[in-house]
């Protein structure tokens, strides 16, 4: 059971909840903070004080005073009117992350939500009710209004949800799970939807996948190095010590660990003086990608433990502050950066694929074909990789530099962070396909060279690839191999142990 207090949620805990259905509960200290902030809201309503979103309208309507008798209707109107997202629904795991992150943000105690509303949100999460949330329609400021409104609809018994493998109304999902919908009170609709949890959930899931993919890429690149009889001297520590990026040094060390004991790699001058950049510069490129991942992780960890509402309620002082913590610019930048980095991971992988299949660049059979000419072998897999890499380049165009005013120019600068996150997630997906293609090609090259010459580390990786993609002895539908291997890279735990001494 994971305790949520709004301050200490980790990436590993997010993964445990999303991938392994670990249950959560609000900590006792957090409940105390939630109750105190709620008391401030109720005092504002009882005294008829002016407070944005509590006794006023929203956005351009912030100067419209709402009578006390209408504050409940104000909140449900907000949810219904803002639930106008479009496009394919977000994946269930992303939605689960959204529920978790919103609960954690509300647990900080700056939102003014009632304890029973927060508890229902936690119950929906723990009972695996998945609100149907369209993926498009958020500007990333004021937060993720449209996506979070679709999430909130289910809490009031409206909208749609996936539950027990079926799509149904939000009300039916709650009923079947033994839960009762809530009736929103003052400020609660705004508390549920004014935040960055859609972009952050998409970004967190994309990051978790990218992190594993980047480490796996080191192993696949090492297998390619052996398939091409690459030169290990470029990975020796001396050259990396004089350009002291820790991530570059770590990648070089990992590559040497992967190929330690190999009878397929070479040294300078044995076959050639130096290798092409896509082999020789693996530490420099993969290391730079690790730098980006560190930056992205740092920003996501801050955001998943942040209060991103407006207004924020400070119970100790009684202050209600209208600010801009809902603005997604930090995550927009991070997601654009993640997309750029993963585009490069795929780009250099595709260049290694080309070196594996192009007979003008190696001494292997053309396109690794069992019978070149009669059988095309892996020729077209490089086409597919090139197509995905090219698509990544368009997706990597930064979303964070764009802005369109909204709400009659009251909200005149927005982040487009959710678009950046969606694009980054798509780039990660494409890049995994490219890496799967490289893995297929490198395993085939290793078999042609003689897999018994592989290092212990890459030998285990080769065996894992072969457990999913059999040796190519004649042409077949390689799309199925690519899909299976890519899916395994996403859903299964791959051993990233390179076999080197600790």
From TrEMBL:
<feature type="modified residue" description="2,3-didehydroalanine (Ser)">
    <location>
        <position position="142"/>
    </location>
</feature>
<keyword id="KW-0369">Histidine metabolism</keyword>
<protein>
    <recommendedName>
        <fullName>Histidine ammonia-lyase</fullName>
        <ecNumber>4.3.1.3</ecNumber>
    </recommendedName>
</protein>
<feature type="cross-link" description="5-imidazolinone (Ala-Gly)">
    <location>
        <begin position="141"/>
        <end position="143"/>
    </location>
</feature>
<comment type="pathway">
    <text>Amino-acid degradation; L-histidine degradation into L-glutamate; N-formimidoyl-L-glutamate from L-histidine: step 1/3.</text>
</comment>
<dbReference type="Pfam" id="PF00221">
    <property type="entry name" value="Lyase_aromatic"/>
</dbReference>
<dbReference type="InterPro" id="IPR024083">
    <property type="entry name" value="Fumarase/histidase_N"/>
</dbReference>
<keyword id="KW-0963">Cytoplasm</keyword>
<dbReference type="InterPro" id="IPR022313">
    <property type="entry name" value="Phe/His_NH3-lyase_AS"/>
</dbReference>
<dbReference type="InterPro" id="IPR005921">
    <property type="entry name" value="HutH"/>
</dbReference>
<dbReference type="GO" id="GO:0004397">
    <property type="term" value="F:histidine ammonia-lyase activity"/>
</dbReference>
<dbReference type="InterPro" id="IPR008948">
    <property type="entry name" value="L-Aspartase-like"/>
</dbReference>
<comment type="similarity">
    <text>Belongs to the PAL/histidase family.</text>
</comment>
<dbReference type="InterPro" id="IPR001106">
    <property type="entry name" value="Aromatic_Lyase"/>
</dbReference>
<keyword id="KW-0456">Lyase</keyword>
């Amino acid at each position: 059971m994971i305790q949520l207090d709004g301050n200490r949620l980790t990436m590993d805990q997010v993964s445990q909840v999303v991938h392994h259905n670990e249950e959560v509960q609000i900590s006792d200290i957090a409940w105390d903070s939630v109750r105190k902030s709620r008391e401030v809201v109720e005092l504002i309503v009882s005294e008829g004080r002016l407070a944005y979103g509590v006794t006023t309208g929203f956005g351009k309507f912030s100067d419209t005073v709402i009578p006390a008798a209408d504050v409940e209707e104000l909140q449900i109107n907000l949810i219904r009117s803002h639930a106008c997202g479009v496009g394919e629904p977000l994946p269930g795991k992303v939605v689960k992350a959204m529920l978790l992150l919103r609960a954690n943000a509300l647990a900080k105690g700056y939102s003014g939500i009632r304890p029973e509303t927060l508890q229902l949100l936690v119950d929906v999460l723990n009972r695996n009710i998945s609100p149907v949330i369209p993926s498009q329609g958020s500007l990333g400021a004021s937060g993720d209004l449209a996506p979070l409104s679709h999430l909130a609809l289910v809490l009031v018994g409206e909208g749609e949800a996936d539950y027990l493998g079926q799509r149904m109304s939000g009300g039916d999902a709650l009923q079947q799970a033994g839960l009762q919908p809530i009736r929103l009170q003052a400020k609660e609709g705004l508390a549920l939807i004014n935040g960055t949890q859609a972009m952050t959930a998409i970004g967190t899931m994309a990051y978790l996948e990218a992190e594993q993919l980047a480490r796996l890429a080191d192993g696949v690149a090492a297998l390619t190095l052996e398939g091409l009889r690459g030169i290990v001297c470029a990975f020796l520590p001396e050259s990396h010590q004089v350009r002291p990026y820790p991530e570059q040094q770590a990648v070089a060390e990992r590559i040497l660990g992967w190929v330690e004991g190999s009878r397929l790699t070479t040294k300078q001058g044995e076959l050639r003086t130096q290798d092409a950049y896509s082999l020789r510069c693996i530490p420099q490129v993969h290391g730079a990608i690790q730098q980006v991942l560190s930056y992205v992780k740092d920003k996501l960890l801050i955001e998943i433990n942040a209060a991103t509402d407006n207004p924020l309620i400070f119970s100790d002082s009684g202050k209600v502050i209208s600010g801009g913590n809902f603005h997604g610019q930090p995550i927009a930048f991070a997601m654009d950066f993640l997309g750029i980095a993963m585009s490069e991971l795929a780009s250099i992988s595709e260049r290694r694929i080309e070196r594996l299949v192009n007979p003008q660049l190696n001494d292997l059979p053309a396109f690794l074909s069992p019978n070149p000419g009669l059988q095309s072998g892996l020729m077209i897999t490089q086409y597919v990789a090139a197509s995905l890499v090219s698509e990544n380049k368009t997706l990597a165009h930064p979303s964070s530099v764009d802005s369109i005013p909204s709400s009659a120019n009251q909200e005149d600068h927005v982040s487009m962070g959710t678009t950046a996150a969606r694009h980054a997630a798509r780039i990660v997906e494409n890049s995994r396909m490219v890496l799967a293609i490289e893995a297929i090609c490198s395993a085939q090259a290793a078999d042609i060279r003689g897999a018994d010459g592989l290092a212990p580390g890459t030998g285990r990786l080769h065996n894992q690839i072969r457990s999913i993609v059999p040796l190519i002895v004649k042409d077949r539908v390689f799309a199925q191999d690519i899909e299976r291997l890519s899916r395994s890279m996403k859903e299964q735990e791959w051993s990233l142990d390179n076999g080197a001494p600790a």
